[in-house]
Design a protein that fits this description.
Largest sheet: 4 strands, mixed
Strand content: 25-35%
CATH topology: 60s Ribosomal Protein L30, Chain: A
Distance between the termini: 8 Å
Strand order of the largest sheet: 3-6-4-5
Number of helices: 2
CATH class: Alpha Beta
Low-confidence stretches: none
Number of strands: 6
Helix content: 10-25%
Shape: globular
Oligomer: single chain
Order of helices and strands: EEEHEHEE
Structural class: alpha+beta
Mean pLDDT: 96
CATH architecture: 2-Layer Sandwich
């Protein structure tokens, strides 16, 4: 598999993400947006942003493993935060994200603030694309 993750010097320096993820061969794995719910669908960490972020990353890991991938295989990440999440919480998100991702070659990423997610109580949703050699 050929996978390159980089940030061209001609773009602004990224902080915790890469600008480009290029996959020339291999298999792409698309993981639907994961929220802070356990296997029974129950909300985990109501009102607690950090607990919800940890659950989301746990769910991403489980989904990737089910597809034969792991967190280091992520090439693209889209994160959605509800508007009530404060700017200070973004730093908490980055700290938790760094524990789960390849920090030397982080995935190309997008962070979007939305008015709400599909269910009340959810504060964050993350979807990813991984590239594997299978």
């Amino acid at each position: 598999m050929s996978k390159e993750i980089f940030s061209p010097a001609t773009l602004p320096p990224p902080s915790g993400y890469s600008h480009v993820a290029k996959v020339s061969s291999g298999t792409l794995v698309f993981i639907a947006g994961q929220v802070s719910a356990d296997a029974s669908g129950k909300l985990v960490g109501e009102g607690n942003f950090e607990v919800q972020v940890e659950q989301v990353f746990k769910n991403l890991k489980l989904a990737l493993e089910a597809a034969g991938a792991n967190m280091a295989d992520i090439v693209k990440m889209n994160t959605y935060l509800v508007a009530e999440v404060g700017q200070d919480d973004v730093a908490k998100l980055r700290t938790i994200r760094e524990r789960h991702l390849n920090t030397s070659k982080p995935p190309a990423s997008t962070l979007v603030v939305v008015s709400r997610l599909a269910r009340p109580g959810w504060l964050i949703e993350i979807e990813v694309i991984a590239a594997i050699d299978r």
